[in-house]
Amino acid sequence: MNIDKLYEQLKSIQEPRGYFFNSDKPFVLGLLESLAANKDRYGYMACPCRLSSGDRDLDKDIVCPCVYREADVREFGSCYCGLYVSDKWNEGKMPHVYVPERRPPEKNFF
Asked: What would the 3-class secondary structure string for the chain be?
């Protein structure tokens, strides 16, 4: 998978929805490489910051963009892994704080 192409595709889909890539592009590209690796490994782009079970049904909440992103960005300005952020977060108009895990513990496979 071409990471630059993935970057442009996701950017064009997510920005109109109010979700922006973190302004640290090398960080973003690393996460996108991990998403692509998970796509190759599991057949879907599981969040690179969480452990996937390898079962799409069990992991449907962490297929990127995960179901927790909206609440994370609304409350903290960033999703859990820091891939998607608000424009205010990128502009430094809000603090960059730790985003706690919202995924229920029973869904963690480790």
From this structure: CCHHHHHHHHHHHHHHHCCEECCCHHHHHHHHHHHHHHHHHHCCCECCCCCCCCCHHHHHHHECCCCCHHHHHHHHCECCCCCEECHHHHCCCCCCCCCCCCCCHHHCCC
- Which tens digit of pLDDT belongs to each residue from 76-106? 999 999 999 999 999 999 999 999 999 998 8
- 86 in Cβ contact with 93 (< 8 Å): no
Are 88 and 20 in contact by the 8 Å Cβ rule? The answer is no
Q: Mean pLDDT score of the chain, rounded to an integer?
A: 95
Peptide bond into 65 cis (omega under 30): yes
